[in-house]
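Subject: Protein record for review, amino acid sequence with backbone structure tokens
Why sent: The fold of this protein is of interest and is recorded here as tokens.
Notation: Tokens come from a learned vocabulary of local backbone shapes, not from coordinates.
Attached in line: The record itself begins immediately under this heading.
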Amino acid sequence: MQDLSKRTGLRRACEALGLARATVYRRRRETPAPRGGPRRSPERALDAAERATVLDLLHSEECVDKAPEAIVAILLTRGRWVCSARTMYRILAEEGEVRERRSQRRHPAYKRPELMATAPNQAWSWDVTWLRGPVPGVYFYLYVVLDIYSRCVIGWTLAGREDTTIAKNMMKEAYTKQGIEPDQLTIHADRGAVPTSRGLSELYRELGVRSSHSRPRVSDDNPFSEAHFKTVEVVRAADLLEVVAFERVEELGEGGALGYGEGVDEVAFGRCARETELEEIREVEQGFARGDAEGGALGRLGHWLGCRGYQG
């Protein structure tokens, strides 16, 4: 480029090569070397003693909760000048104090809690779901307690209403059956009315059980129990319909009592029934057979749950 521009001129050489003359001039200009050494302090900069005076003023009880602009205004009303508000901000930034200068609580990094079980009977999950009744608008309530580690059904019961007393009886029975020691177990549930009731909280404290609840208004508040209920409600929905289809409306008590005898709150509490515990399974089946005679549609549904593989 330099040889060609000497023979033809820079303008013609740039036109022949398709370059802008400003580009050639910019590339020929020598880049100045960067200045070495630290920046020189201004002559009017505050010395160490003056900086200490400013910091003492900012840390004083009168000025600790005020902005630098307000401090400068207060000093001017008293006929005193220390430095500008911008200088105060610069000094605070160098000291790492451009924040709330009052003593306040600093929250540590929050770690999301995780419920993990490495052996049986370390963590249980329980919930209540609706099962369709013999007529529209009538439902049965299925209470289920699962062991998170083994996914075994620790305890369950079937009732015509959702009540704290029923849940407490189920928890006591499962706790005693499994031989749980104090401070061994954590029971997880959602934030429904029954799981968060005072009665259950007092029972947990009495038994030495830790309670666990999910964050409010989230979709995965109780994934273990919800996944189990999907199997009961969706996979076996056809069988459930067979159980309740033949029930007549006349079998229901007055006021929608679901065929209960007076004063009967539960039908056939399902104790911990594992596949290998055949003796206990027979006891459950016998209990549901009694419930069939006493509880009408509710007893029949309970008998179905006990005899068709709902043992964990």
Observations:
- Strands lie at 123-132, 139-147, 153-159, 186-189, 210-213, 266-270.
- The first helix runs from residue 2 to 8.
- Residues 1-29 form one domain.
